[in-house]
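Q: My collaborator sent me two sequences in one message, no labels, and asked for predicted structures for both. Can we handle them in order? The first one she listed is below.
A: Yes, handling them in the order given. First sequence, followed by its structure tokens:
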Amino acid sequence: MEAKLTYEEAIKKLEDIIGELEKGDLSLDKSIDLYAQGIHFVKVCKDHLEKAEGKIKILVEDEEIDFNLWSREE
């Protein structure tokens, strides 16, 4: 597995794996191997999303900005 993939790279690899699995012409062993790789890339994506969420929370808390546009009275 590659180290330090970007979110976009991990999503692309996950899409490729899903495409291969959906074909249905793989051996059981190859299917299990691809499934395991897919789980790895899901975790990579989850880690990226959690880091991004943490950064956004810090930015919002630091600036105390109200991003709820619908709460404004017009």
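Q: And the one she listed second?
A: Here it is, processed independently of the first:
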Amino acid sequence: MFRTPILRCIKQLHLLENTIKTTVVHTSSFQLQTTSLYKHGEKPELTENKPSNSEHNFLVKLKSDPDTFGTQQQEDTLVEDDVKEEKYFTEKPLRSQKLSTKRYADIIKDLINKRKIKEAIDVVEVRMLKEDRVKPENYIYNLLLGACGRVGYTKKAFMLYNDMKKRGLKITAGTYTALFNACANSPWPLTDGLNRATKLREIMIEKGYQPNDTNYNVMIKAFGRCGDLPMAFSLVDEMISKKIRLRDDTINFLLQSCISDKEVGFRHALLVWRKLVDKNIKPSIYTFNLLLRCVRDCNLGDVETTKDVIDTICKHRKMIEAPNIKQLEEGNTRIPPPPFQDIQTTESTSSNQSQTVQVQNSPVSTVNSRPNLLAKIPHLGNIISLTEVKEPEHRLLLLGGCRGFLEEIENRGCSPDIKTFTQLLDCIPDTVAAEQELLIAMRKFNIKPDLDFFNMLIKKRNMRSDNNAAKDVLKLIKKNGYRPDLITYGVLAIGCKTEDDCVQLVSEMKDACYTLNTEILGAMLYQACYQMNITYVMYIMDLCSTENVPQ
């Protein structure tokens, strides 16, 4: 419709060389006006028509129409999404505002090191995507996934993983490692963590992804901590079938899996250790510390099945006739322990034999009468009754006792640390002699006890009502250059059996500028009630009032 007036105008411009005034009015409120002199070749100006007065009056009349009901707002309402969309197209970020991937990664790493996980996530979700409009790479996402996995933000980690898939980013080995680590550290490992780990494992199989050794280790960690020990052991069998070399990291994650099973974890740990010996894997001190955790926290489980397991470990001794003691000491004669899949078959088969394991006298027992299932040639000594193996000190005895365990650490080329001796303190017998032997061993290995070790020693002695020996630990604390802290006075309060002991401890706390709290007064009140000393009870109640401690 525009072409005919415009062509007519151009034709007249070619014919006329003086002045022209042409007006072309269109029904769509556009008007072509030429109000001045145009020379040859000049184009007219296109302007927009304004509504006339009659149109304005019509609109006013329309607003006051009697058929219009209510107080409906006449102005156009702005939708929030429309405002955001308009802002997105109008306010574009400057090119100088956008950073490189390395600089974004450095910002995220710095926040992660400061444990500001939420702020690190906001760098991607707010700054990069909304403000700077930069597409994150999978490296950026892997950084966030690793941080979420370490602190147990399982749900957020999988949300970021789904965002990666929506953006078409490549899923790498590091991505799977971070996700399984998030499952392992989940606040709900037996439910949410296990379900997510199982589904992620199925996704890897569907995609045909071949895990590397790091992926296998973190999968063992995830399924072990989430309570699925059969899956953890089957993953080790899968590593062996694929000829992936087992390292001490794999053994450590298996021991973590054993710790999660409080009923039969110690029995699993014995078989895991035999696999370590069979594969000639050199353990680290971290391996020995995990083994001590199993000794302290886990039981043997069913006695008959445990007997079968121990017989399996020591079965090579039955095949030795007229053995050479020197060869046994050097460990030249060895029968390989069972594979990992035999762990589950051994668990399901139990015989009707007696609950007492009796080992006949043999040259091995002449070498060392103490039981030691950690040695290259494991042995049980003379006689051991498995029905009595219920306490940590009994389980430690199966591993050679405190002395034998430390000798095994030394023979494997490792050096114990303070954590080793702290865990041994929970596993040795409740006697002063055993504790003195442990302190002597610490001096032998040049390990200085810390304040936490002494606090545990005070608590251990007070729990067996050896209050005088507990007070003697204060001398060791001062001798090693430490100052008692609030926890020290808290464990000392366990031994305050009389009112005089309570008065003395309160005086020492005031001299050390410490104030009483609910836990310390609660420990004293327990002793007062146990001793049925009403005067002692009333004194503690008065202390609560004078010290403004909530009752």
